[in-house]
Amino acid sequence: MDIYATGCVAYWLLTGQLVFTAATPTGLLLHHAHTPPTPPSSRTDRPIPEALDRLVLSCLAKNPADRPQSAKELSARLNDVAGTTAWTEERARDWWTTHQPVGASADG
Q: The whole model's pTM is what?
């Protein structure tokens, strides 16, 4: 499992924004390689528990040894995050209504 990629997806799901943007693909790669990410909680108006913020940032650590080392470890750490609420169909629908990429269809 690619923990870094999982962190990128989690970041987007929490904020509706990409971890990094750049004018060129090379610029984007350089950000992913060298730029510390901004905590997800500072890029959204929705509350994000501090422990979840830290967990996502740990998935995005530049040094792979500083990331969760397995999906099992990531899952266990996620289960320990207090203050999260259940993901429901209604919450999913609201999220996609707000963050669906331009040109994407809800019908697939």
A: 0.78
